[in-house]
Amino acid sequence: SDGEWEWQEDDPNFVASASSTTITTIDTAASATPQLPSGKLKPKQSLGQNFLKDPNTVAKIIRAFHNDATRDGRPLSSSIIELGPGAGALTDRLVQNYGCDMLQCIEIDPRAVEIL
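Given the sequence above, the corresponding C-alpha cells read:
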C-alpha cells in the first residue's frame, strides 16, 4: 500500500434534493465533479488530502454550508474562504451559487493549483 485511501460514500443511495427552503435558491442537485488527470494527482497523505469524487457528497456539503452560512436566504458574511480546494469539486459549486466575488481559495499543493 502507498499510504493512500479511497473515499467511500456513507450512504450510496442518497440523492440530493434540488429544492431549497430559503429565499435564496441554491443548486444542491448532484452533478459531475471535476475529473483528476489519470495518475498525475494522487492525494498526499502528508497534506491530509482527499479529493471529492462523489457528486452526492458534494451536494450534501454545499447544502450544509448554505444552511450554516445564511439567515433568511442572505449570506452572513461578504466572503467565503475555501481551504485546500484540490481539484475544485466544491469550488465549482460555490462559484455557481455565490459568485466569484465572494470566494477566495487557498491551496498549497502546486499540482492542484495547476488544475484550478
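The helical segments are 55-69, 89-98, 110-115. Try to locate this feature in the C-alpha cell string yourself.
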